[in-house]
Amino acid sequence: MRGRALTIFLGGALLVTSACSATVRSATDNVGATETSAVESSLATSDMPATTDTVIVNEAPATSLPVATLPETAIAPTTTEPGPQIYDPACVVVVEALDSLGLIANAFDDETVNVVALRAENNLPTADIEVGQLLDVCTGNGLDDITGEQRTDPDEAVVAAAVRQNVEIQQLKLNKLFEEIGTQPLLIDGVSGPVTRQRLCAARLAMGLEINTTDMASGSAEERILLAADKLPMPFTSALNQPKWILIDRTCQFMFVGEGAEKLTFGFPTSTGSEGFETRDQDQARAFRFDPASDNGGWHDSTDFPVAADNPLNGNMYRPLYFDLGQAIHGANNVPTSPQSKGCARLRIENQDQLVDWLGLASAMTPIWSERSISVAVNVQGEYVG
Questions:
Q1: Is the domain covering 238-381 a CATH 2.40.440.10 domain?
Q2: What DSSP string describes 79-142?
């Protein structure tokens, strides 16, 4: 670590709100399943000793810390007592500031010490990080570089807790990025289940990263891009030249909706066609039919899969918008994170209503057969990998 500066993304105090107005679905690929973990009620108090008695900013050169002077609020009173003897000053930093996510805002250079390794090194799996705190940033060297004592490997419980908090940090960031486009917030539960991985995939799509539904490794290059983003970028699609467009990605099982290249309007989880009934590729296909099904509460009974009761698993579609023969975007009471429709793209009922309102079709009482009246282009791309 000597001679190598660091940028540290480390979780501090996490403020968890009750932003979820509905249960986020699917901790497995089973229909109707939910994420398995509840929101953490609070984070543990740090076991680290307070530093106000030990951090002296006017330390002798041999033991001064390799960071900027502490802010006034963190400076200990002047004293004649000797300052702390830091075993390896090159491996010890002072937390100078925390950003809005509770991440350390110190900028040491372009490299990242990941949350999991840093918390394990300092035995802080879930404790709050505070301004003025000393941290050992030389991870994995077998030493406590603050005291010089030998450090044993962290046990599995410490590592598991640190991993969990790193996922919470990612979930918080995803919620901040997606809230502007109306996407239902994730539970902040530290579990990287199918719903969180679906959102990570959508973020990768928007940011131009490799599109997949895997976990995002702590300290990785793509995590640095995620955590540094102030706003969700516009995903690339050939339909950006259209006034209004819909992008359905089968890899992520996610739908972006926008206006030209200027405005990203919505982001909705979707479920596309299952094996043998795949939602077909589209390149600026024009939506040509909208059925408000006003005589049946918005539920259209499919001619291919007719049933007596409104059941999306058997063919009923809420306010369908057709873009390719019988394939449509429609509302459903169940929208899993995997492809389970008969070729259509399902949305939650409230999301379908938002889409219909955005297209100016909310007041329609009879079916509309007109590309010009509906006026939206649809792209379908990607390949689902279970």
A1: yes
A2: -SS-----S-GGGEEE---B-TTSBB--B--S-EE-HHHHHHHTT-SSPPP-TT-EEE--TTSS
